[in-house]
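Notebook entry, structure prediction.
Reason for the run: the old model in the group folder had no record of what sequence produced it. Starting over properly, with the input documented here first.
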Amino acid sequence: MKKIKLSSTHIILVVFLLTILLGSLLLYLPISSANGKSVAYIDALFTSTTATCVTGLVTVTTASAWSPFGQAVILLPIQIGGLGVITVMSAFMMIIGKRINLDGRLLIMDSFNLNSLSGIIQFIKKVILGTLIIEAVGALLYMTVFVPEFGAKGIWYSLFNSVSAFCNAGLDIISDTSMCNYATNPLINSVTSALIIVGGLGFIVWLDIVRVFKNRHTRHFKYLSLHSKLVLSSTLVLIVSGAVLFFIFEYNNPETFGNMNLFGKIQASLFQSITTRTAGFASVPQEALTSSSSIVTLILMFIGGSPVSTAGGIKTVTIAVLILTAHSVICGKKQVSAFGRNINEQSIRRAVTVFISSFTIFTISALCLSCTSDAPLIDILFETVSATATVGLSRNFTTTLKLIGKIIIIINMYFGRVGPITLAFAFKTGKNDKNTISEPSEDISIG
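New structure, fully documented this time:
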């Protein structure tokens, strides 16, 4: 019998799927439910998927539907999904003293999109340590608000919220209205926003920033890698531009920012701009947004965070490369460049592939969901983009989904988290093209 050898891509897909299934079985137990009765299995599966895929869409409210045991079960896959199953598996092997072999190191390299095996174990250790420190600091800061308000329960609320925010999961156990009760609380807004941003920048960018600032002679933006420069600049542009647009479009909306003072409106605008990029926390009702703000939200959700981070979406670097490519074509340049460096053709091709693949998944899902629901188009688009980009924001539509609708969103969240490139490699049937003979070229009309 021929032995089946799974590629690193297949392993990532399978382990993610097994994590989801295990979580769903634990959540299906009566002990996981707040009322001591098992929830419907489809809701347990949906919740496990949204936690593992760090999305945040829920068919049953996290704060009231689950017992402390169920909430702990939800928190574990959030942490696993945020760090990545391969990272968690590697950390576990290091804890029990097992050596990570070459295959394991290659798997880590693929999952983090690294170019070398050198220092890969130290990289994992730094990622784990950095994550735990950031989440611990976030939890301590949350406690200054939640412990006085909720007593001892505030410690658990703080820990859960910190992990969920850093992992860009958007799940919370404070109330049934997400963060709406804290829309104008400066500490809650700033801590949550900081955790979302740091988690969404990506592990590679963290280490690059640390590398540059360790050397007092190179403490400057120009010494960062091109990847880090693209991530930081595009993140800043998206946050600021999104906040300005939300501030304008929601300024007089009585159902969102209208009754807030100026400082409150600025806070809410920044939070909405940050959370739409795959975090999923809501400080204002999303169904109350103006049509203009809803469109801006759709765009920001689709873009998402940055590569090799806890965030989803097509990623900031993808959209940056596509814009730079369009700019080079318009300006008649032969090379696509940024910050004095040329971007290689392979990166451009990957960016195009990610964009088209994600847009295709989103379009097919929206069509399928529209066939199973008579909801307004904006609600359907909002839900499918939120699921595909693993955001978690909803216009109160998730809880109304029928069985087939829940299955569509579950598939969307899974595909969105593992990523279109991973899926493409997993289902690729043809062999790599090793033919060195180039086929003849011919011009075609474009545009």
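Summary: The mean pLDDT is 86.
The old model has been moved to the deprecated folder.
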